[in-house]
Amino acid sequence: MVKYKEKLEEQKVFIDGEWTTSSKGDTYSIINPSTGKTFVECQKCDVEDTKRAIDVARDAFDNGPWPEMSLEERTKIFYKVADMMAKKSWQLSKLDAMCNGIPALSHLIMVLSSVPLYKYICTQAKKVLEPKKVSTLYPVDSTVLRDPDGVTALIAPWNGPIWIESAKLAPALIVGNTAVLKPASQTPLTALEIAKIFEKAGLPKGVLNVITGPGSVVGAEMAKSEKVDHVSLTGETITGKEIVKNAIGNLKKVSLELGGKSANIIFDDFPIEDAVNMAAVGGYFLNGELCIENTRILMQERIHKKVAKKFAELSKSLRLGNALSLNTNIGPLVTEGQMERNLKYIESGKEEGATLLCGGYRPQEGELKDGFFVAPTVFDNVSNDMKIAREEIFGPVLSVIPFSTEEEAIEIANDTTYGLGGAVMTKDRKRGMRVAKKMRTGSVFVNTVHILQGETPFGGYKQSGWGREMSELSVEEFTQPKSITADWGGFTKYFVELVQLH
């Protein structure tokens, strides 16, 4: 039996450097998906609370010290944040596991990846913010520099809370922006802990505000507000489209990292055991609730049956369990609704004629019976026009699609409205790079999966989003380029005289 705290104390929100409750005193419950029991109450903020947080961030940007501080001063605070986060890594991992059901060890990977990200972004900001002299046709001095956007509204998802919150907060704050962070309603706890860490590290009052509540209310108001300069969302594609509609009022900048239906192309020269393992990690990491997950597994015909059989055997052996258990491979899905959604897709796969190799049910015995579990599910002989191959399921439900030639594999991989991730498994270096280049997607992994690094940009093509997170590009994403042209030699007076002569 896994030991955990049955109840946590009621959580508050962080506005203007103070820990407070929602304006109406409303709260909502978070259910631990491993047990099906409520374990904490959080503030249910509304439009009034959102407007207040935005007003505070606006004032902190317009009148506060943060935008005027040197990069070196801001960097010192970031280094303190990174060090404190490292010390609390296991505590933070358990909090997220209790909220969304993803194994705590998986969260630990994300927390420990966030620590160097804060430090890395500081070095990238130094490069991005350095004024750059530009050679011009005329005898004038031209300089290009970058200013912070202003007030940023950061909306995070529930599947990788602390990693994605850090990927937004680090580049947004380091360049001098202020922020209102809205974590997903299901996973607010680590965002509130991050606020405590920044507060302890000496972040000026009002620079970071964290509010909790429904996205349809809080997120919508953040996107609508004319006091917000940039809204950054990681979430579903349908939510991204709503953000764009709401943001049109003041034509604010919008960054979107949205859904995916990534393909893992396995060629017949790749070792079978390695192919099976890569398919498992690429398809089941974070319980299958990952936007970049390789949920379409394309297997070349010569090895298709053998790899599919072994993959199903491996899937059956994976251990389902409480997200806090160190023995758990796959935990419960985040909510009962998400579990039901997965089960409906499974029925759809059966109805459309796909072959169910394993899984396809909700475990209802022992410690699993009250949690929101779905057994690892593999469908074989899936065609790319089936619903389970077209739509983002967000769970441990994977589709095996056979293919014949390299050209056919590329065609299938690209035949989707998404373009976030993808993978290629082959021992042929030239083919690996050739196929990767032809895949219409923001990230491709050759003979590996899910190695998301702070140094490489992350984002998607098509309906997988706008803009990029991580790398130097993420810092640029939260700035506006400005050109300053100065005439110190008197060229302009000759230009004016020339114009007047005509």
TrEMBL record:
Pfam families linked: Aldedh
Coiled-coil regions listed: none
Superkingdom in the source lineage: Archaea
Residues annotated as the enzyme's active site: E257
GO molecular function terms noted in the UniProt entry: oxidoreductase activity, acting on the aldehyde or oxo group of donors, NAD or NADP as acceptor
Keywords: Oxidoreductase
Aldehyde dehydrogenase domain segment(s): 19-484
PANTHER family for this protein: ALDEHYDE DEHYDROGENASE, ALDEHYDE DEHYDROGENASE-RELATED
Subunit annotation: Homotetramer.
Protein family according to the UniProt entry: Belongs to the aldehyde dehydrogenase family.
Protein name according to UniProt: Aldehyde dehydrogenase family protein
Organism classification: Archaea, Methanobacteriati, Methanobacteriota, Candidatus Methanoliparia, Candidatus Methanoliparales
